[in-house]
Design goal:
single chain, 14 helices, 312 residues, transport, cell membrane, mainly alpha
Amino acid sequence: MQPSTATHAASSFKGNALAAFSFLLWGLMPLYYQFLPNADINELLAFRILFSVPFMVLVFVLLGRKMPSLAMLKADKKSVLLCGLASLIMCVSWYSFTWAMTHGQVLAASLGFFINPLFAIGLGVLFLGDKLSAAQKMAVIFGVCGISYMVFSYGELPWLALSMGSFFALYGLCKKFIRFDSLTSVTVEALLLIPFAALYLLWLWGSDQSVVISSALAGDATMLWLYIGSAPVTLMPLVFFALAIRATSLSMIGLMQYVEPSLQFLLAVLVFNEHFDQVKAISFALIWTGLLLCSLEALPALRNKYRSKRHA
């Protein structure tokens, strides 16, 4: 094996390991939020935004990278504006996800991430001119059937899962047009929202409506640290993912992304004992069938790509 080939193989292995670890962290995230039952989502979101920037500064220092400069931001105002739009979109998805985590709806979160690729496929067709393969078309059909069966059986839309899946897909679409690297864009997104988060927390404190701050001032800072901890807990997987995306293929990322909702599904059913009835079983089965078809379709191309690089 030539040195360049060995280097590439090592890089791919490292990228795959980082990607798998990021999805593992995302999948296990419900365990953290079990310490925050019925949390005030607005305040939790504000703390998460406020302490995201210090955490990202630490990440840049540890990785030896330069923080985004004002000159760089001024040079690409379009990307800055798109970062602002992405941050607002992500707030909706993260708000839905956090509400699910803290209100015994981990199964809904799992469903949201399982149907996210279907929304991403649809947005790719509408805005990026993507062409659907046969497996992707079948995945969309199975996904629509799964959601439709749930709506028909329960008489209502699974709004929580749909909002999570759709807004996270919109976030991904928005990121396609941002020219900053992943770590920089995440930092800029948080920076743009910091004034609003800080003002909201100051208003809560000034009007004596913050249970978290009040309890901390009274000597019990446990809840405060849990709220602050939501920033690194949610951003660490994103950092590992950003590092992985440079060293592995999008095909491999696509296949591994189901680790996250699968773990959340197992936690919801086996650990948190959430209700999993026949309706959910059939709906999930239909969605899983479509995603399985896409994965099976991607495997030969991924295998051929790996072989060609190996013999390059």
